[in-house]
Design goal:
binds magnesium ion, 49% helix, Ubiquitin-like (UB roll), Four Helix Bundle (Hemerythrin (Met), subunit A), 18 strands, ten-stranded mixed sheet, 738 residues, single chain, 23 helices, binds adenosine-5'-diphosphate
Amino acid sequence: MSPANARSHAVLSVATKRRDAVNTVNAHPAEPVMPSDPTEYFGCNVFDDKAMRRYLPKNVYKSLRKTIDLGRRLDPAIADVVANAMKTWAMERGADHYTHVFYPLTGLTAEKHDSFLDPDGKGGAIAQFGGNALVQGEADGSSFPSGGLRSTFEARGYTAWDVTSPAYLMESPAGMVLCIPTVFLSWTGIALDKKTPILRSNQALNQQATRVLRLFGVDPTMPISSNGGLEQEYFLIDGTFVSARPDLLIAGRALFGAHPPKGQEFDDQYYGVIPSRVLGFMADVQRQLYRLGVPVKTRHNEVAPSQYEIAPSYESGNLACDHNQLIMTVLRKTARRHGMSCLLHEKPFDCINGSGKHLNYSIGSPEVGNLFAPGDNPHENAQFLVFLCSVIRALHRHAGFLRASVSSASNDRRLGGHEAPPAIMSLFLGDQLTDVLEQFRAGHVTGSAGKRMMNVGVDTLPPLPADPGDRNRTSPFAFVGNRFEFRAVGSGMSAADSLVVLNTMLAESLDYAADFLENIMQGDDSRLGEAVQKFIENVMEENSAVIFNGNGYSEIWQKEAERRGLPNHPATPDAVTVFSSPEVVELCAKYHVFSRQELKAREDIELEQYLKTLRTEASLAIRMARTQIYPAAVRYRQELAASASSCASLGIPASLDTLKELAEVIGRFEVSLRSLEEKTAALVWAPAEEDLLDSARECLNVIIPAMEELRGWADKLETLVADDLWPLPSYQEMLFMK
Ligand code: ADP
Ligand code: MG
């Protein structure tokens, strides 16, 4: 084969996928969006209050409504009637299957479909769906991670409808399926999912919040519950690029890729005009979600190229988590239909922002309102300050637990990356509120002359700032006027874990607050002001270290936080060990959220997932380096060498600099590739339970740096090798072509 032939052969065999991808993207038209009126179809696929009223006898409706509002268990006496109504409603809309949807510890959504049809014994079939099938399902749990909670002989788990999350119909080209949101437990009552602890922690929160409210003369009849508003970030990349990049396809992130000449530095993307193809996708997503009763509200471009955000209005925390799982499912599914791929990985591309999921958190009920909202009068504000200070205390005491709730190999890549909150959990209060609380504390220090004293003695408490004013974006946990925004949750993970930690740690602080106030008041309501005053002083005295209004991305904060004694665990292997710490075990046992065993299982599963993720990434990196990057580099070296020797034989002067540099980089690349192969072969990837932590730490300290080194040389090669030989779609193609 002549050199020219060899070259064209190489182009065909190596870079065709990439070229095809580029050509397809250019040819892709934007989908037309037909106008529609969402008020006409919002919630049409949900067995909601309207459907219940229509399909249930009045007394059954009333009983079910009460069960839902009070968060109780479904009365077995009405289960059959409810199930039958649900079946009729679903079948009228074309459903032929039902499934209990549950949320296993992988953080994903799981479902097993059952047909409504049963043989009638006469050769035909009848549609059946009884109360038992609604209330309880059986699921073989042996293939879900359980962290040693179930040995295989008792692998069966059961699922049970969570009445506070309505059933809905999932549409697909294969037909409609009735989906019933459920908890997933072992037969011995151990939580094998992410929903059960939410319900448990809500109960603890309700109990303690109610105690505090009673001291303020409020006696709620409805449960106090957490509310959540989840802003979801994601990347949208053309599907052909993803199929030409095994790393995006399998690991959800680019393991290689030289930085593009232009990234996000022009700030030209955030809130920019949404490209029409993307807008078509967003409109489609929104309509499906409306039908599912998910109240999506906002959509916009995010900071990085090809990064976007979708956010629904807030709902009860439990429902918000279920709806967020639905949002992720619909995003992924719809992207495929539009020839695109939705990347929910926390850091798909190295040199630009990663994606998070902000959990906006508040507590309250329709009856008592939002307990994190400052009120209109001093009495309400005193109550607000007690709840606010309880959050401050909770975060200070359980920062490590909250950090652990957002740990994963992928989120580690984002936290602390000068774009996302650091792994140090601090609280942004804003200067005004901080000042108010500091003045309370000053009141405790006798003789701090000149300083205006705050006094809760009811009429002396001044109006509180309604809005903290400045919007600090660098804090992981920011007070934003009437809620807290927890920004460390990863885009691809379930928000349930963080919600559970927030509820539980707050329950404990409210318990403390109620004890503290009761102790001073001794049943005398007129001493409420004095008691609140002392409580605020006490909280600020012991916990103000966790308040930080400055720049959370700065180096100075890292040092300052260390001086203040705040925990800082940038990596998952260290972060998740708090699950088995005595403080967390005691906290969770006291409020019946997790047993010691359940916590240990979660720690083990986090470590297992960490190892599995990195094992996949390391083998993928090796495979791509060996079979895609190395061959391209060697072919180009050959081409340069052939050209140099032709020039020499013709007596034409030609520089060998590029060839030498390329040869040098290929050499380094080979060395680091071999090193990663050896290290990967030596690591114990599936260790015994007691060695999980050691393996994960080794992975962090040995495998990740080896992968980074290999990537460094690979990315250097991308800037040297002829573009038409390079097999992988480049960053600029993936991020800027849509
Ligand atoms: P931003 O980007 O400025 O943070 P967004 O509008 O994108 O604001 O998202 C704010 C989220 O906070 C929405 O989901 C909104 O419904 C939610 N939210 C608003 N008020 C509350 C509240 N009291 N409790 C919980 N979430 C809330
Ligand atoms: Mg936002």
